[in-house]
Each structure stands twice: as structure tokens, then as C-alpha cells.
Design goal:
Order of helices and strands of chain B: EEEHEEHHEHEEHE
Shape of chain B: elongated
Structural class of chain B: alpha+beta
Largest interface: A-B, 46 and 61 residues
Order of helices and strands of chain A: HHH
Oligomer: heterodimer
Number of helices of chain B: 5
Number of strands of chain A: 0
Radius of gyration of chain A: 19 Å
Largest sheet of chain A: none
Strand content of chain B: 25-35%
Radius of gyration of chain B: 22 Å
Chain lengths: ~110, ~220
């Protein structure tokens, strides 16, 4: 017996969403690597776990920093939207973090 | 509209640093301070990961040259005059803020804290029935104590090397310890060694350290979200 067409379509949508998510993560990883190579500066850098770096950056940019109450600030809704979008990414990063930490620990110098 | 990255001291131009959406950051000066800004097109106001890294990149470029107070993501002002106004209005607060972070950087620490699940014996002489409300509360209390103890084991050696700190503990079966430390550049190596020592101990082996970051968590605005 074949699945009803609606179910097959939703399977396909889920698979497409999964691929899109994986590609987004891959792109963001590539961007972080470029960012990391730029971070040489003249400081002794503490070993940086790139996956954790994104989570830490998001925390700092959205909870820290100087707040100004000007005539125009980005509508709070926009920032909250970003936050919601990134929460999902952060959650996925945190869930892969243990294995990632292990692999980095063994490859790090 | 201008996008704001940071408050700092007046500096020579930032050459070759690329800001949010490819814009070139520049300084707007007033009252002995400078704001790092670039033009921002409001037709697309959604900010994503690229903008976040661009924001951080500009702040880090400034941080390598002078004390800096980063702005929160998405801070916009109408024009140069509005920036000069806010620099004058809050100049004193920001000048003090720059002194607090001068010569220091922020380091981020995360650790998963194992909470002991073994039952603690009830206090001497107390009659506590297994499965009762009192037993449950004692279990919760023991878990909380164990969590606080583990957090202290991470925090105490690190805070001794820091100028200031912010600590958050997210509760849960595997509680997450998250902290930021404001550390003198001269003490970075010592801080790094302290982290490595904690990593070697089983109870705190999950510790990760990121940075050096600009002092995002030490700008004096943290509680205003």
C-alpha cells in the first residue's frame, strides 16, 4: 500500500527542511572559520571553540553592550526576531557541542 | 540612518575594516569621545549572523587600539547630529566605563555542571519517609547545594584573576554555568592556565573558554534589555 500523497509531500518538505538546515549550519561554520582566521590580532588568543563562539557572540550581542534610547533604534521586534531565529541555531549547536568538544580536544594543539 | 558599533576614544581612521553589510566604519566625535558608525539602509532592517560577525569584527578592530564599549546589536541613530547629542548626554558615564575596561578583555566560560543524584541522608534526628514531600524537598536542596558547590569550584580560581565578573547558572539536570570575566591583558596567560587546570579535574572537565572578546558584558547597560 502506498502512502497518501499528503504524507509523501510532508515527508519531502521535512527532508528539504533538514537539508536546508544542514546547509545553513555548514555555511555558518565556513563563515566562522573565515572570521576565526581574521581574529589573529596581536593578542595571545585563548583556544577558541568555534561552535561555542557563535553561542557566546549571540549572548553578548543581545544581552550585553551599551543600550541607547535614541529616536530611532531598530524596532525591538526585529531584534527579537533575530533572537528567535538564532535560538534555534544555538539550541542545535549546544546539542552537538559534547561530541564537537571531544573531537576538538583531540585535534587541538 | 547610522548603525552604531561602539564608543571609544578619538582615533585615526580604521582602514580596511569592513562593517555591517559591507559599509566602511568611521568615527563621529563629541565631548572627548568617539562613536564608531556606518551608514545603514533601513529598507532591509533584519539582522542575521553575518551582521553579528561584522559588528564584532569592527569592535575587535577598535579594541586592538583603544578601550572600547561595544553597543548592543542593532543600535541605530538618525544622523551625525543625533550621535553627537548622545555622546554629550552620556559622555561622563561612558568615559567612566572606558576607564573600567581599559587594558582588559572579556573571556567567556561555559561548563556543564554535574549534579549529584545520590540521595543525601536526612538531617540528624529527622524522620523523613521515602517518597514524601519532605524527601523530595531535601533532594532538591541537596542538588542545589551540589550545583552551587560545583559552580564555586569553577568560579573561585578564575575570579581571583579577574577585574570583574558576571555569572549565570541555568538550572536543569545538567546545569549550565555561564560566566564572563573581565581580565587584564597581562593576566590572560595566567587565566588560560587556570582554565586548563580546571579542565584536568573530572568535576569541571567540560569547561570551555572563548575570547578574548570586547567587554560586551561590562558596559554598564547589561540589565537594561
Amino acid at each position: 500500500m502506498t502512502d497518501p500523497p499528503g504524507k509523501a509531500a510532508s515527508e519531502r518538505r521535512r527532508a528539504a527542511a533538514r537539508t536546508a538546515r544542514e546547509q545553513a549550519l555548514e555555511r555558518s561554520r565556513a563563515r566562522r572559520e573565515t572570521a576565526a582566521t581574521r581574529r589573529h590580532a596581536n593578542l595571545a588568543r585563548v583556544r577558541r571553540d568555534r561552535e561555542v563562539s557563535l553561542v557566546d557572540l549571540v549572548d553578548r550581542l543581545l544581552d550585553g553592550g551599551v543600550v541607547i534610547h535614541g529616536d530611532i533604534t531598530l524596532a525591538v521586534a526585529d531584534v527579537d526576531l533575530v533572537y528567535v531565529g538564532l535560538r534555534a541555531l544555538v539550541a542545535s549547536v549546544e546539542s552537538v557541542q559534547p561530541q564537537l568538544g571531544d573531537s576538538l580536544n583531540t585535534t587541538a594543539t | 540612518v547610522l548603525y552604531l558599533y561602539a564608543i571609544t576614544e578619538p582615533l585615526s581612521p580604521l582602514d580596511g575594516v569592513i562593517g555591517v553589510r559591507g559599509a566602511s566604519p568611521r568615527f563621529v566625535r563629541a565631548g572627548g569621545l568617539a562613536a564608531v558608525v556606518s551608514g545603514f539602509d533601513m529598507t532591509s532592517s533584519e539582522l542575521g549572523e553575518d551582521e553579528m560577525w561584522a559588528h564584532d569584527r569592527v569592535v575587535e578592530a577598535v579594541m586592538d587600539r583603544a578601550p572600547v564599549l561595544p553597543m548592543r546589536l542593532g543600535s541605530l541613530l538618525a544622523d551625525d547630529a543625533a550621535v553627537r547629542n548622545v555622546l554629550r548626554q552620556r559622555g561622563r558615564e561612558w568615559a567612566e566605563g572606558l576607564e573600567r575596561v581599559r587594558g582588559a578583555v572579556e573571556l567567556g566560560i561555559r561548563a556543564a555542571i554535574e549534579v549529584e543524584t545520590t540521595h543525601q541522608p536526612p538531617p540528624e534526628g529527622a524522620q523523613v519517609a521515602e517518597g514524601s514531600g519532605a524527601a523530595y524537598l531535601l533532594g532538591r536542596l541537596a542538588a542545589e547545594r551540589s550545583r552551587q558547590g560545583a559552580a564555586r569550584r569553577v568560579h573561585e580560581p578564575l575570579v581571583q584573576l579577574a577585574r570583574d565578573s558576571r555569572v549565570r547558572i541555568d538550572p536543569g539536570g545538567l546545569a549550565r554555568f555561564r560566566a564572563s570575566y573581565l581580565v587584564d591583558r597581562a593576566r590572560l596567560e595566567a587565566f588560560k592556565r587556570a582554565v586548563e587546570e580546571l579542565r584536568r579535574e573530572p568535576a569541571t572537565s567540560s569547561i570551555t573558554c572563548t575570547g578574548p572578546w570586547p567587554p560586551y558584558s561590562f558596559t554598564g547597560s547589561e540589565a537594561r534589555r
